[in-house]
Backbone:
């Protein structure tokens, strides 16, 4: 593993535009349960999974009822306000602080990257601490709205301060499209990067799992629809940090896999970068 950590550190130092993708694996190390693992939320409570699949349909049909049920039901992830970032989150924040990491795209809705200090974060599946307007995509901290008071005063659903559109939780539900602004920005980052660091994701949930493939196709002279593209191509290095191999590993999308916990591997990469930089500066 030490050789791969050294390789990753050197690749990151050479990169002109490195980005990171993160999934549930980095958050489980902070004590947040995943959904379908042996100890997963839906594994233990299939009824909660059923309700998750029904949520967006309920919102479209009756936003008021959606909010009433949301406010009267427990959060499936528990009290996220008490969860703290782990060394993996802080390592990615450090890479951004060092000027190496230009953008971070996460599947996670827990806000832990922002809490750890990362600034340029795209919440691909939304953020549990925000509300989003379904008309104009404006986002607000959930704390700006006293939802309990709105419910008591029979003034649900909450409304957008910019266009008066209906607000929903920012998290993306099943059968709900990824917000257009986030989807477009994420695709642009995948097409722009020359290094992609993939951390703690099984790479089976689409369209998020397509982002590494977009980057790889671009580097092979292919457009995202697999047709040959006339645009100039450039090499992309794709590194996985995962507990187990993924379809990206098996299909040859990633260049190499560092197998282990993100909370251990990512800080080790940062330390190696600092060691190399220290040698070069002396």
Residues:
């Amino acid at each position: 593993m030490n050789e791969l950590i050294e390789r990753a550190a050197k690749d990151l130092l050479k990169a002109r535009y490195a980005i990171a993708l993160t999934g549930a694996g980095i958050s489980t190390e902070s004590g947040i349960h995943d959904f379908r693992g042996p100890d997963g939320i839906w594994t233990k409570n299939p009824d909660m999974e059923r309700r998750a699949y029904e949520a967006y349909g309920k919102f479209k049909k009756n936003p008021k009822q959606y909010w009433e049920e949301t406010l009267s039901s427990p959060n499936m992830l528990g009290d996220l306000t008490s969860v703290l970032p782990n060394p993996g989150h802080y390592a990615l924040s450090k890479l951004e602080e060092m000027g190496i990491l230009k953008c971070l795209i996460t599947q996670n809705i827990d806000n832990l990257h922002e809490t750890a200090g990362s600034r340029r974060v795209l919440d691909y599946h939304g953020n549990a601490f925000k509300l989003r307007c379904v008309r104009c995509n404006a986002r607000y901290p959930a704390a700006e709205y006293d939802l309990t008071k709105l419910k008591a005063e029979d003034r649900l659903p909450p409304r957008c301060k910019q266009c008066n559109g209906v607000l929903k939780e920012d998290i993306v539900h099943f059968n709900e499209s990824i917000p257009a602004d986030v989807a477009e920005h994420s695709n642009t980052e995948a097409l722009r990067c020359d290094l992609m660091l993939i951390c703690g994701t099984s790479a089976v949930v689409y369209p998020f799992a397509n982002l590494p493939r977009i980057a790889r196709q671009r580097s092979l002279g292919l457009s995202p629809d697999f047709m040959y593209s006339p645009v100039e191509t450039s090499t992309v290095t794709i590194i996985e940090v995962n507990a187990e191999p993924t379809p990206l590993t098996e299909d040859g999308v990633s260049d190499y896999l560092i197998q282990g916990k993100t909370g251990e591997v990512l800080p080790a990469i940062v330390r190696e970068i600092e060691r190399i930089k220290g040698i070069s500066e002396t």
